[in-house]
Every structure is written in C-alpha cells, then in structure tokens.
Give the backbone structure.
Amino acid sequence: MLEGTYNLRELGGYRAPNGQTILKHKLLRSDGLHSLSKADEAFLIKYGVRTIIDLRSTREVEERPDTFMHDPDIQYVHVPFLDRMLNNASDMIKMDSLANVYIDILKNNQPSIKKVFNIISYNINNGVLFHCAAGKDRTGVIAMLLLLLCDIEKETIIEDYSWSATLMEPVFIHQKQKIANAGYEVPAFIFESNKDDARITLQYIEDNYENVQNYLVAVGIEKNEQQHLKEAFLGGKFNGQD
C-alpha cells in the first residue's frame, strides 16, 4: 500500500457471523513507520489516521523513530511491549515457539494492553494505527484481541495473522543475512507466522478466561467500554449484499 511499509493492513472489512462488518478507516495494523516517505505520510493522514500507537521497545524507538513522532497532525503514543525480553536476547531464545511469546504478552503485558485499548477508546472517532517492528507479534496479539472483541470468526483471525511472514519476507531475508554475517543465531520461528501459533494463543484465552470479554475485564477494560468499542467498530450493518 505504501512505499515505506510492507505489512500495513486494514482491520476494516471483516464480517462477523451476525452480518455486521468492521468499518474501514478505524483500525490499521502495520510494521515499522520509520521509513515512510512524505507521500506515505500524506496518504495516511488523508486516510483518516490521527493516532499512532507504537508498540516497540524503548531501544527500538530510539534506534528507528517513527516519522510521525513529532507531527502536529498526529497523536503519537509509545506503549512498549516486551521491553524486558527484547533487551535480554537470552529470554527470547528460551521461548520455544511464538505461541509462548504471545501467551507471555497476554500474561505479563496487561498494563500495556489496557493502555492500548484505552487510547483506542479515547480516539474512537478517528483512525488509529498500531504497529511494532514487523507488524507480526506484538501487533498480532492486539489485532487478535480486537477481532475477537468484534466477534470475527477464529479461522478468519488466524488467517489474518498468518499473512505477516509472507508480507515481510523481503525484510526478513535481509535480516537473516545480517544476523548470519554477524555470527549470531536466532530461532527460525522468529521469522514465521504459522497458523498454529495463533490457534494456540486463541485457545489459551478460551481455556483460561472462557472468552475475550473476560480476559479484557481481567486486564482492566470494563464490559461497558468493550461494548462502546465494539459498537463503534461495527457501525456497518449487513444489508444482504456483498
């Protein structure tokens, strides 16, 4: 869609079983925004984006700041996820699957998840873009929670998640070569977005909380706020036509 991103996508357009559809121009997910061109920036502003939530670690932001960080037309908010893990490579290597990374996010980043949902709720009338570095893991977990809240079917959520590795392949090829040249080794799964990892993550929520609503209550998002978000996202009614 843009020159400076690979994994920018709409959450709008997904249809719930009752026929309601998530409105477009409300929620976008992406990889890093540090390489946006002026044309990219203009496109996103014209598209309706007014709030950007950066889920990257503090170190990642310092090394590659968002081009929108000081833009007067954009509310930029940094909500770091996985700061501890990303600052200690051995913690990441100890994880044997991305599903375990995602479950760690759901367990140990609940204040950050609450903050993300609060920011989205406060800015519900404008477009919100949330992103991390690859738009796959931290972004993927937030996207799963939002889509679950909107009653999107699990297999659709899993399919949405699985696109990241394909879209990011040009970047990942370069990163793998850079890592190999430096003499480092990282688990191969770091560059993947296998459906089973999303499936296990969704099952964790179901097994431990029964549904996403209960999980979000545990995080600190009350059901009336959840309903407010859901109604705002699902403003389009199914009229029987595609």
